[in-house]
Structures are given as structure tokens and as C-alpha cells.
Amino acid sequence: MSDTAPKNYLNEQKGIKSWLLTHDHKRIGLLYLYSIMTFFLVGGVFAVMMRLELWTPPSDLFSPDTYNQLFTLHGAVMIFLFIIPSIPAALGNFVLPLHIGAKDVAFPRLNLASWYIFIIGALFAVYSLVSGGVDTGWTFYTPYSVTTSTAVVPMVFGAFVMGFSSIFTGLNFIVTIHKLRAPGMTWFRMPLFVWGLYATAIIQVLATPVLGITLALLIMERVVGIGIFDPAMGGDPVLYQHFFWFYSHPAVYIMILPGMGIISEVISALSHKKIFGYKAIAFSSLGIALTSFLVWGHHMFISGQSELAAMVFSFLTFFVGIPSGIKMFNWVATLYKGSIDLRAPMLYALAFLFLFSIGGLTGIFLGAMSVDVFLHDTYFIVAHFHYVMVGGTVMALLAGLHYWWPKMFGRMYSEGMARVSALLIFVGFNMTFFTQFMLGIQGMPRRYASYPEQFAPLHGYSSVGSLIMAAGFILMGFYLFYSLFKGARADKNPWGATTLEWSIASPPPSGNFDNVPTIDSDPYEYKTAAGPNG
Amino acid sequence: MSHSSDHPANLAHHFTEVEQQQESAKLGMWLFLLTEILLFGGLFCFYAIFRAWNPDIFHNAHFHLDVVMGTLNTVVLITSSVTMALAIRSLQLDQKRAALWFLWSTLILAGIFLVVKYFEYAHKFHLGQLPGKYYTFQGIEGTNPHIFFSVYFLMTGLHGIHVIAGMSIIGWLIVKTSRNRFSSQYYTPVEMTGLYWHLVDLIWIFLFPMFYLIG
Amino acid sequence: MDSSLTNIFPSSSSTIASDVDALFNFIFYASAVFFSIVVGLSILFVIRYRRRGDEPATSQVAHNNLLEIVWTVIPTILVLIVFFWGFKDYVRLYVVPHDALEIKVTAQKWFWSFDYAEGASSVNELVVPVGHPIKLLMSSKDVIHSFAVPQFRIKMDVLPNRYTVAWFEAVDTGSYNIFCTEYCGKGHSEMLGTIRVLPAEESAAWIEANSNMGKGLSLEEFGAMLYKKKACVTCHSIDGSKNTGPTFKGTFGSQEKLKDGSSVIVDENYIRESLLNPKAKVVEGYEPVMPTYQGILKDRQVDALIEYIKTLK
Ligand code: HEA
Ligand code: HEA
Ligand code: CUA
Ligand SMILES: [Cu+2]
Questions:
Q1: Residue A45 CA: which ligand is closest?
Q2: Considering only CB atoms, which chain A residues are within 8 Å of C9?
Q3: Rounded to the nearest 5 degrees, what angle is found at the Cα of C227, between the Cα atoms of C224 and C231?
Q4: Has residue C7 got a pLDDT over 90?
Q5: Could you report the per-residue pLDDT of C187-242, keeping only the tens digit for each?
Q6: How far is Cα B189 from Cα B100, in angstroms, rounded to an integer?
Q7: Looking at domain C17-94, which of 2.60.98, 1.10.3110, 3.40.50, 1.10.287 is its CATH number?
Q8: Model pTM?
Q9: What ipTM was predicted for this assembly?
Q10: CB-side exposure of A65: number of CA atoms within 13 Å?
Q11: Which protein residue's CA is at the shortest distance from atom 1 of ligand 3?
Q12: Which of A209, A214, A233 sits opposite B144 (nearest CB)?
């Protein structure tokens, strides 16, 4: 950042201390962004190591114990350290106050504290990683997690601590959205990203405490042997699964809802068109958030729970699909007769439409009880959740990152390289994970360090795909880093978008808005050839 | 971000008016209390489930809790809730001395609660009525009586941690009040602590009958 | 099956398999339609309405009630169909026919043992008659495992604290893979087994032959057989190499250091204890992961194994 730039939040104060003690939501957003990028890299390296092992059937590159730790650490890092904080805490922090015309979030100090809590939790996770790793799978199922000799406690404790970070972020956002909207910013004039964050925050606040208590009990079980999950002492291991999924199913919507918010922003802005079905999208976010609490049992169709319970869970599962479908159709309709700008954010948004359709629709297969019996714990599941989490959330994150990059740093990245890397990621991703659907249908179980010969060809393709994808990410790391220093200066509004953040300088000044704006129109007022609102 | 001179001292820069700030604090606090309820809610579910699975041991074991001490603690906590409310009331009326007095009473009552709890715990430790694998007591009929004590210690223990946290916050309020930080103009932190303290009280009011009374 | 998808499916070899596949195919084709609509239209619009200069959009329509109703109602109807269909087959998967032949399945790290009513037992190999319903009554000795046979489209978790049930009726003779599909530790991916489906007479003969506790074999030969059949081979080598457990080569009569610092001489009683209560004395340098064979090995089998280990010098 050169000094010739006008005063902004990046250069007004200098020095490491000014970052570590900042209360500015934009800076805190960046702190989160750097943290999650680091953990994504760590989780990604584990992933590539796994794929190298799976290239051939026997467990030759790593021992089975090492492999088991690899997928556990990959899953735990990606879920707890990367994807849950990713969009809300990094991009959400940066954008939310700007979107509603506020100077900051409601509780700036709590906001900073959340980041520190997150880092402390992450340190515990890292500690467990270096002190022998964990081999339970990211789900920590009892009784295995109670009996294994690996460092389960620090990892679980880390996840427990990070839960508070997530709760506080959610709490902060709810209050901010309720109380800090600029004058005239009614609920239905809020950009849809804000709706997405709002629905997410509700889940964070309502579901995370239950995870907290569950993980705390798991720690107690290991340390003191309270005996409520341990069958040897009259406890019930399946009870643990219920409590775990009560959080972790809603958590998958913590991952996707803010991503869907970004997609709404990007598709509307880069087609220069009013979003189609604003209210339907807003309400379906809330609908998804609320329904998400009632479907956790679909992870447990074969765990020995009662058939009646399984039936109810299956029934409700399908009703999460409907609002998701509504959103998909609305986005497609927004493209209709737009003026579609195919720069990087839009490319990622389109990748999202493609990949999340596949990921979501395969969720419908899994909601169907008899089919899930067949597919449960096979690579079909692995493929499903990578299509929704990588194809959905990560694509949305990348769309948002490229979209707000000029606002964050006042610089543009190389559009050409962005396209190449988007292509590599898209191709590599499909190659890695589409093959895994086929493996799953053939019966290949997940969490296998070695596998029978018959699965070898598909695993081979999958491994090659993961290297292509890794190349795409490395290229992205490179051009984004380069743009920080050498990128062309971005102006206020490089996309011609209409939400509030684009009305102030790039990068914005510390206090965001010199004068609190007064809002008197909808968030997406684009012009038409025929005249306003034609 | 310089505060303009007409900006009230307690108003943070990102709020436009005091009301907005207070309402934000209140909403934030309510949400926080909600998460607390859910945290305990998880444990209440465990209680309900294990009770349904082991009705006999829950019945037999509850005779081993001391109803007198439990009742005493219930009275102590309810009284402390009252004194907490009175402390807020006094601040609203700008009666600093009374407020201090009530805050001290709350703190002391909370202390008494913990002392009583200590005696209860000590007795159980002595008898070997401990959670899970440390359970060595012989006098309870039925399979897995340790589960009752696991749930008992988890729930009362977590509640106890909340009492201790509340005490430190109340201590901090006492310091601030004696330094004249609060007045009828600004007493949000005291009000928020009050809400928290009522919740701690309320949770106990559920715990007490669940463990000590119903058999 | 009438679809090209059949090529990727494993063979459908139980009475329920083709019904599961039918629902799978139904969802697949419905999904293909929705996918084509979403992605097809996106591509079409991107091509058709690509921005060239900085011309504004040609329309700002922001909603259309009819469309919105259509794309809510049609998916709802479809998922209702899928729900009922899936539920119906799920119930079939769990309601065991009355005349089913019951076999007890025990899972433990990291092998399956099967016990027949006739007294026969086997490890990692289940032999059943074709065309007859088989009921599996399953439980685990340690952590959660899961019993899965892709070609039969069945799968059920196996729990340590309660029995679970699965059933199937094979329609073809042949060999089918059993996978453990619930992660259970180091040997999870090696917790494999085979179901051999034989014509009724052959399967009955196999059960008969396996109930006779190695009649006609010497103790040593019987022990060598059990070494493989009871899965000792997964953890103990006989050539001196170190595996999950110590090798059997030269073990008998040697002195072993234990984890707690003491040491023992490996004799008959120690081996017996190692089999029935393996956690009592843990050899230094190894994890206490050896499962107990209490209830799995009969006395004569224990004797046979001891005799066999003695010969491995
Ligand atoms: C971002 C995360 C995310 C998201 C958004 C989803 C979304 C969905 N998931 Fe997924 N899921 C996971 C992450 C996610 N999932 C993870 C991590 C696991 C495994 C965890 C583990 O075991 O390790 C899992 C596992 C999982 C299972 C358990 C499988 C098993 O273990 O046996 C099930 C079962 O029902 C399921 C279902 C669904 C459904 C129905 C949706 C729906 O929300 C999808 C809705 C979307 C659409 C339907 C597509 C768009 C709609 C249209 C194009 C319109 C047409 C629609 C219809 C006709 C309905 N998921
Ligand atoms: C957000 C979640 C997330 C993400 C992004 C990923 C990403 C990937 N995952 Fe992961 N995965 C999970 C969540 C995720 N996964 C979970 C929860 C499980 C279950 C674990 C369990 O069973 O317990 C799982 C399991 C899992 C398995 C199954 C293991 C098994 O069951 O045996 C496999 C196998 O192929 C796999 C592969 C991959 C690959 C190849 C990627 C790739 O997409 C990775 C690509 C990334 C890189 C290659 C890193 C390169 C990045 C850079 C160079 C960054 C540049 C730097 C800057 C910009 C600063 N994953
Ligand atoms: Cu047994 Cu996995
Ligand atoms: Cu789910």
C-alpha cells in the first residue's frame, strides 16, 4: 500500500499493534481473512497428501494410522478452522456494516475478542496436531473417540473454544442488523447478503451452544469417565451422535447461507439487474435456517434409531430442498435479459450454480431413506459434501473475495490469471469429486486407508484432479498476493454496482461514511435501456 | 474519529444516540442469555433422557441429596435476586449508598450459596458418591447409579461456575459504583448483570426440584 | 434394470436391490432435468445477454407470481413422491420375514465373526443359502462398526450396547464383499469379509462341516486353520515381522517385557490369558488393542491355538 493513497482504513494507523488492537470491523475482517486462508492452505495440504495415498490401492505412502489422522485433521481444520468462520467472519465482518450504512458492528470490542477466541481455539487444534494428531474423524464419534490414544482432548477443546467465537460473531451481527441500520434502511431494503448473514447468525446463536455442551461432555467423558456416552458404563454412544448432528446439521447451513447471500449480490451486480424474487430469497434464507434444526437425524438412518424418527427426519429433509431450489431459480431468472459481465466474480457465481445444483440434488438422494442405506458412509457422501462445501461455499467465497477485493485493498488483480485459475479449479474439482460419486455407487466406503483393486482407476482420476485443483489455488494465491502491491488502482465502483459500499472510496476510510447515509430506495436499482425501471 | 463535544461520554463513536446504544446492549444481552439457556438446555435433555432410561436409580439416588441444604440454597439465591433488583432500583433513584449495600448483599449471598454447596459436595466426595468411574458408594440399588451423580455434578457444577462468574462481575460493579461510574443516567452494566443473575437464579429453581424433590 | 446407469452399479443381488436402484434412477432422472434447467438456462442467458460495452440490462422484471408458484409446487410434489417411495423400501429393509434363518454377527476390531444356530462359527466368511431370507442379529464388542454389502444394498451399524438387525435374501449364488463402513480405527479399511452364497445343500454341508470343531485334524493343524480363520493373522505374523501385535515366531518359552515394567515367560497359561483377557498383560511396545476371544473360542480351539504357537520356533 503506497503512501500516495488518500487516508483509508489500511494506512491511517500503522504498525502491528494497530492491527492487533483494532476495533475496526474492516481490519478485523482482514485478520479473519488471513487466518482462514492459512488454515485453508493447511487443510488443502492434508487433502493433497490423502489423495496421493489414495492414488494406489494399498496403504503404501502413509501407514493406516497416519492416513486416519490425515482425514481427521483435514476434516476438522476445514470445518472448524476454515469454512465456519470463512464467509461470515471474514467477508461478513468487512461488508455487513458497509451494506447497512453503519460505522461499525454493534460491539466492536466483542468483535475483536471473537477473533482472539478463534485464534486461541485454533492454537489448541494446532497443539493437538503436533502432539500426536487425532484419528477419530471430524465427527468424534463415541465410543471410539473415548478409547483412542490420540490427542482428542485438545482438538475437541479447540473446537469448543472456537464455538464461542462463532456465537459472539452471530450475536454481534444480529444486534447490528437490528439496531444499526442507517435511517431509511428498512428490512426489505437490506441487500440479500445481509439477509444471509442474519439467517446464519440465528443458527450460530441457537445451535452452537448445544455443540459446546456436547463437546464439553465428550471431554469430561475422556478425562473423568462420566459414563454417559460410554457403553461400558451404561452410557449410550448414539446419544452423542444425536447431539453432535443437532449442531452439525444446522452448521452446514452456517456454511452455505452466507455464500448464497454473496451469490445474490454478485449475480445481480454483474448482470446489472435487479435481483429476481427479492422477498422469496430473503424468506427462504430464514426458512432454511429454521427447518435446519429439525433434520439432524438424516445422518443416522442406519444408526439404530427408531424408524418413526427416521421417517420424520427424512420428510423434513426434503423441505430444506424447496427453499434452496427457489433461490437457484431466482438467480437464473435474474440473469434473464441482464447485461452479463463475465469477469471473475461472475465466473465463480456461475460455477456455484453448476456445482451447487449437483451437490444439493445429490442431497436429495441421501434424504431418501432406502437409497441412503445404500450410500451412507460411501464416497457418494464424500462427493456430496465436497460439491456443496467446495462447489457451493468455497465458490461463493471466491466470488465474494474477487468481488470485494478492490474495495478491501483498492487494487485490481489480473483478470486474465483469475480466469485461468477459475478454469483450473473448475475442471480439477469436477475431476476429483465427480469420480467419487461413481466410487460411492460402486460401494467404496469412506475413511479407508487402503481399498480393493476394483476401485483403483476412479481413485486415480480423482487424485490427478486434485493436483489440477491445487495448481489453480496456487496460481490464485500468487496473483492475489501480487495485486496487493502491483495491482492497478481500483476506483470506487469497478463493477457499476448499487449497494452502499460502492458509494464510498476504495479502500474505505476508517469511519466508513463521512455522513450517515439516508436510504430511500431498494438495494438493486439498475438502469434499463428503456429508461428507469423499464 | 474524534468525539464531538456534544457527544455524551458513554456513547461509542459508531452509535448515533444513547438510546440506540442501550437497546443494542439489551438485545445483545438477551441473545447471550438465550445461548446460556441453550447450553443448559443440552444438559436438561441429558437429564430427561437418562431419567427416562433409569427411573429406578434416579428415584433411589435422590434420597441421598440433602433437601435441607438444597432448600436453604434456594432461599439464599432467590433473596440474592431480590437484592440485585433492589440495587438497580437504587441506582435509578441515584441512591449510591443503598446500591452499594445491595450489591454487597448479593455478593455475600452468592458466597453463602457456594459455601453450602461446598459442604454438600464435600460430603458426597467423602462417601464416594462421585461421577462416573470414580463412583465407589455402595448404598444405592439398581444398575449404574453413577450416572445420576454424573448428571448431578455436571449440572450443579456448571451452575456453580456461573455463580462464580456472576460474583466476579458483581465485584467489578461494586468497584465501579463506588467510583461513581453509574447513575440514573447510565447504569446499563448493572442492569445487564441483573438479567444474568436472574437467569442463574432461575436455572437453580429448575435444578432444585429436579434433583432434590421429585423421586 | 433398464438404464445405462446399471453399468456403474454393482450387481443387484438381493431381493431389495433392484427396488433401491429404481428409486435411485428416478431421483437421478428428475435431478438431471432440474440440473439441465438451471445450468442450461444459465448458459443460454450468459451467451445471449453477455455484456459488450456498458449498455444497461434490457429488462428489470423483479418477479413473476406464476413462475414462482410453479417452481415451488413442482419440486414439492416430486420430493413427496421420493419421500414415500424411500420410506416404503426402508420399512421393507427393516421388517424381517418370519422364516428367516438367524445368524449372530459379532463385530470387533477388526474382524467379523458369525455364529450359526447349529454351533458352527466362522470369521470374516459368511456362508448362506441362495433364495432364503437371512436375518443378521448384530452386536459389537468394542466400538461402533457397520455391516455393509453393496451388492445387496444393505448396511446397518453394529453397536456395542444393543442389538441391531439387518436381513437380506440373495438372488444369485456367488461371492460378495462385506465392508465395515463405520470408522473404527487402524484396521477399519481391512475389516473386510465375504459372503458366499451357495445352493441350499452346499451351504448346509458347509455349516455341518464347520460345526465339528476340527474333527479329523490334529490339534496343531486345527490351530493353524484357526490362526487364519479367527483373524489372528491380521495382527500376528509367523515369520518374525512386527505387525499390530508381536510375532508368534519364537514366542513360546521366551521372556516378554510388559508395559508396566514387569516381565513374563510365555507359557500355556499366559497364552490362554492373552486370548481371553488380553488387557491383563500388555506387551511393551504395543497398544492394548487385541480383542478378547472370550465367548468366541471354545476350549478345544484355545488348546489348538496354543499347540500351534508352540510349533512356531
Ligand atoms: C455446505 C454444506 C452442506 C449443504 C448446503 C448440504 C445440503 C444438503 N444435504 Fe448434506 N451434508 C453435508 C454438507 C451439506 N449438505 C456434509 C458435510 C455431510 C456429511 C457429514 C459427514 O458425515 O462427515 C452431509 C451429509 C448429508 C446427509 C447424510 C448422508 C449420510 O451420511 O448417509 C444427507 C441426508 O439426507 C444430506 C442431505 C442434504 C440435503 C437434502 C441438502 C439440501 O439442503 C440441498 C438443497 C439443494 C438443492 C436440492 C439443489 C438446488 C435445487 C434445485 C436445482 C431445485 C430442484 C429441487 C428439488 C426437486 C428438491 N447431507
Ligand atoms: C470446507 C471443507 C472442505 C474442503 C474445502 C475440502 C477440500 C478438499 N477435500 Fe475434503 N473433506 C472435508 C471437508 C473439506 N474438504 C470433510 C469434512 C471431510 C470428512 C473428514 C472425515 O471423514 O472425518 C473430507 C474428506 C475428504 C476425503 C475423504 C477421505 C476419506 O473418507 O478417506 C477426501 C478424499 O479425496 C478429500 C479430498 C479433498 C480435496 C482434494 C480437497 C481440495 O478441494 C483441496 C484444495 C485445496 C488445496 C489444494 C490447497 C491449496 C491452496 C492454496 C495453495 C492456497 C493459496 C494461498 C492463499 C490464497 C493464501 N476430503
Ligand atoms: Cu469396523 Cu470400521
Ligand atoms: Cu445434514
A1: 2
A2: 441-442
A3: 160
A4: no
A5: 999 999 999 999 999 998 888 877 766 777 788 888 888 888 788 888 888 888 88
A6: 14
A7: 1.10.287
A8: 0.89
A9: 0.89
A10: 8
A11: C145
A12: A233
